[in-house]
Amino acid sequence: MISPDKIDAVKNANDIAEVIGGYLTLKRTGANFKAPCPFHQEKTPSFVVSPEKQIYRCFGCGEGGNVFTFVQRMENFSFVEAVKHLAKRAGIEIEESRPDPNFSEKESLLGANRETMNYFHEKFKASEKAKIYAKERGIDDATVEDFKIGYAPGDVSVSVYLKSKGISEDIMAKAGIAGHGNSGAYDMFRERFMFPIFNLYNDIIGFGGRVFDDSLPKYINSKETPVYIKGRNLYNLNNARKNASDGTIIIVEGYMDCVTVYAAGIKNTAATLGTALTPDQAKLLKRYAERVAIMYDMDDAGRAGAIRAGDNLFSEGLEAAVVSFEEVKDPDDYIKKFGVDALRGKIKSAQPFIEYKLDYLAKQGDINNAYYKEKVIKEMAELIEKTESPVVRDNAVKIISKKLFVGYDVVARYFKVKNGLLAKPEPGHDFDDTLAMKNRSIDEAERRIVSMALNALGTENEVVILKHIQERRELQEMKYDDFKNTIYAELMVKIKTYFKAGEKNILKHIEMDYIDNDEINRIISELLVQKPVEGAAKKKVHTADLMQEITDYVTTIVQKSKTVPEMAEISQKILQAESEKNAGLLRELQEQKKKLQKRMHNIEE
Q1: Is 237 or 483 the better-scoring residue by pLDDT?
Q2: Are the CB atoms for 488 and 450 separated by under 8 Å?
Q3: Is the dihedral of CA 332, 337, 341, 342 positive or negative?
Q4: Domain boundary residue among 331, 364, 397?
Q5: CATH for 77
Q6: Is residue 294 within a helix (H) or strand (E), and if so which, with residue range?
Q7: Domain range for residue 275?
Q8: Per-residue pLDDT tens for 52-103?
Q9: CA-to-CA distance for 34 and 463, rounded, in angstroms?
Q10: How far apart are CA 173 and CA 183, in angstroms?
């Protein structure tokens, strides 16, 4: 395994601009370089490389990180493979050492999975039964290679093979490849058609195994391990993201659907891993897609699953749509009956999720019953209020109004009751439709504080800035535990801890703490390229300006955290007073609201 000191040496020996310049044509713009992003289609270059901070950041798709992250993405390497690749480039010899136990276990599990995949894949090539089954399911040789499809024999053989490769029974058990019996290790997967599960960097993190007939259980899946969490990964996303040229990724229910759709030529397809699509998976998809087409089986479970998936995708701000085909049960059957071009047409014309959910709910009860109709409107409002887009909100109100034959103004009132926001202002009303903006400004304040702290590290301002943040935080009783963004809070706690301990090179310590964490690296790169104080982009930023900005942002966080809930509460009370036609109370509440608005305005100033 590679020691942290050696990883640091490799990083220091590989200038990020030189490394990326070997892949892209970089154009200098001031202190930085720019190029068209290699991770998404764009006409205007928005991919920035900072030699000073040794990071890259795309302002178009949001990708970012360090030199290891970039090589992982470009070469489909694991983290260790990226380190070894860059070490070779720099002429640094990598020797194995005693690493952090957790890091060692992770690499051991990945190694065991990789050997298991190779074993199953070779067994597939030697099995006529497995090859015939693949052909019957429409899986050609190229797809078998792309997915490294395998075959698990019926005997206890993979355990023996892994032992011959020096892999312990303990690692086999932790990886979910084998179990412990009275006579030793036994294989978990036997007489099954095997689907290796890759993460984004082509590491093998788990397996799914299907029977060849209709016996039960139809599938056996790897248990969750330190390298495999089902709700945070998607099957074939490593390939789907590269083929999402139009910004669309298709989500199906399982391995076989994914492989057969891919084999038919629709390669921007991924699948959930035996669970409903989770919020974490929706966040993952948002990094690589603008639109997600949900293509689940057309049974009751599939329709209900599409609703859960759509809820999470919509809540994450993704455009979601649902592919329906009443004639058959699943995508595989549809391709066999109608052909792949017909399925492409279905995907292109997939029903927007808002419409799909509304139709789904309408069929679950008597939609002509006024009480059930109101229940449907309330459930839809609960979902729609999660969007920050007034355009999407307004469009949703129109759709609900049209489909349920309820007046626009009546539907809009349910949205006002939910969160004080109007999809479309009504004459004579003065509801505050900026509460979401206020909450976002709290997140912006947190982000700017973390950005200034990170950018101060290693500069002459480090002590002054970090002490000022600490003093203002203590003075106004702001706790990092109260941050809305938990990652920002975690980074600030790390900075505070290292600073208090008198550590030098705090930024390097933080980078090493998260050296193989793709998500945190992306966020750190984003924070390190934030613009300085307004109006100071082309001149040196004075320390006094930074300190004042910190003071303002701490004040914003503390005061708005109190004022925003008050504004929401007063808006609800105004609605109630209006419905009760209580003119006296209404005037009093409106006066209170004006004072709150003035306070919010003063905070903004």
Answers
A1: 237
A2: yes
A3: negative
A4: 364
A5: 3.90.580.10
A6: strand 291-294
A7: 229-364
A8: 889 999 988 888 999 999 998 887 677 888 898 899 899 998 865 544 455 5
A9: 32
A10: 15
